[in-house]
């Protein structure tokens, strides 16, 4: 204090001193209550204990009809006890413009999931993340010599590697158009990325290869790897020639074999009148009664392979109105033929869900349950959307579990709705 400065003090009246002491005490109490646990004292953890990472069983793309190109990524944790189901829905990644709502895939070890992101075909990429962790790029073309990533419905599969060590991500290579020659310089193909096993205790993504071609194919989509990773089922072709094929994954220069024809699939086809107008796709050629057919594309939007390798679940365009091509679920029952080292179809059945949802309901992205009870009950998860063309009031999208086998008390006797927000593509760990 400067010696030349005189400080004059005034004594507060006693009643005012009491008021001040009360206010100071109240302020100290409020601050102590508001302080986070562990913020004070030596050895306290700032902000309290760490929040546990989400541990969902099902991951899915979430987007409403108001923002279809801006999906979030969400996850559902399930607890199933006999025929009772409880579920918890959690956001894993915020909505993002350009994220592909049509594909998402768990790794075989359930530690990470992958999806497709980007609207520009030259820069579209495959992303991956662990629940609760930041996303990273798994693959993105660096220049025009690299494979372009196609999007679309069920455009990713992730299953065990042929070696039994590590895993393989499967995606479709998009065709490359050469504007100078006006031709496709690189056709569509099935590609694979080989991924090493995750390092125990490490939060870092495992090492992986660059994409390698597996097989050229016409418009491949709806990928499903067998439980061993030895075979890949996929939708291919266009129009009347669209089929579900199977290709071996563990041989050089594999040749696909047709498993299901369009008639087997039971997809819709649309009749229209012939025309002799220039450029007509179906000229009458003197037969005015000629019937022309148009076909929805794709006929098969999604495929999943059951854990016992004996069934494929398919989401198929079935609506008879081309302006409202709703989808129904089918199950293809398979058997293994050792003579020709191939799977063969036994039969294809439609899953009868119209009594629950109405005939105009659409069922999407069917996924088999991973557990022993799931297999015994032939349990499926699927996303569902309903329109009002049949008088239904079930607008919006939902997520359901459904058992094809109902003879056991451990199996569901009808659909079980679980927590979800506008589910699109899904995958069950």
Jot down its keywords:
single chain; 429 residues; mainly beta; 4-stranded antiparallel β-sheet; 28 strands; disordered N terminus
Short note summarizing the structure:
The chain has 429 residues and is mainly beta.
Distance between the termini: 72 Å
Which ranges are low-confidence, i.e. pLDDT below 50, for 5 or more consecutive residues?
A: 1-20, 26-45, 388-392
**What is the average of the pLDDT values?**
87
Number of helices: 4
Please provide the count of β strands.
28
Question: What topology, given as strand order, has the largest sheet?
Answer: 3-2-1-28
Determine the strand fraction and express it as a percent band.
Answer: 35-45%
Structure description:
The chain is mainly beta and 429 residues long. Helix content is 8%, strand content 39%. It contains four helices and 28 strands. It has a four-stranded antiparallel sheet, with no helix packed on it. Strands 4-5-6-7 form a four-stranded antiparallel sheet, with no helix packed on it. A hairpin with a 6-residue loop joins strand 6 and strand 7. The protein is globular and about 80 Å long. The N and C termini lie far apart (72 Å).
